[in-house]
Structures are given as structure tokens and as C-alpha cells.
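Field guide to reading this record: the first block holds the primary sequence, the second block holds the structure written as C-alpha cells, and the final block holds curator observations. Each block starts with its own label. This record concerns Type II toxin-antitoxin system HicB family antitoxin, catalogued under organism Allomeiothermus silvanus.

BLOCK 1 — SEQUENCE
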Amino acid sequence: MPKYLCVIEPNPEGGFDGYAVDLGVFVVGKDTREEVIESLQEGLALHLLELQEHGREVPPPVAQAADVEGPGEWVWIEPATLNPVSVALEHLLREAEISQAEVARRLGVSRVVVHRMLDPFAPDHKVSSLERIARAVGKRMEIRFS
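BLOCK 2 — STRUCTURE
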């Protein structure tokens, strides 16, 4: 995955801000530099996913450090890895036109549980939970490798 040039700078009110030079990804008011980097990684991943989902071209990184004016630390950041299962679950609910709240009601769990399963940065999912969500929206789960 390509790395994008980002700038991390101190926030005058404390903490740190950051932005990706090539893409409209901004982070404001994080306590540490590491939190800015993590948020930029996630923001880049989500921005690129949205471009792909809307059939738009994903721009390659083109900015160079010389393109950046002003103070700040230049950092090349790779977008975070998205969990394809969470992304597929989000598409499933959108396709079925069912809200997270409704899925939670059908499963008898809190909305937080459903929200966690749809988190594109969630590390893993239980197969039994995936099967329950599929049934809750009137589908069945299939696993394919290609």
C-alpha cells in the first residue's frame, strides 16, 4: 500500500494536529503524536475506501516535502488495514436498509455490540456472530476464498 505525505504540527491550545497533503484527511486535537499518526492512518483508509465505493479513482501519493510550507513534521503514513468482514457487514446492512439499532434489537444485544462489529478496524469476528447478523437481515453467510 502506498504511503502518503502527512504533516504533524503542535496545536496552539496543546496537543497535536495533522493532515494528509494529497487527500482531504485532517486530525485535530490529539494528545500525542502517536494518536495523530493512528488517526491519520485510519482516516486515510476510510477516505480511500469511500473513493473506491463511489467509483472514483484513488489518487497516488504525489506530494513531496518541498510542497509543504510552514512548521511541522513531515511523515510518510500508510493507510490502516481495513477488516474486510466489517466492511462487508456495513454493505450488508446498507443493502438491506436496516439500521444498526434494528439489527441490535433483532439480535437482542446493545447497539454498541453491533457498532463494534461494523468497526472497519476491528481485529476479528466470531463466525457465530456473523451468522446471527446474516439471519437478522434475512440472509445466510457464505465464506469464499479466491
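BLOCK 3 — OBSERVATIONS
The CA atoms of residues 103 and 133 lie 7 Å apart.
The chain has two domains: 4-77, 84-137.
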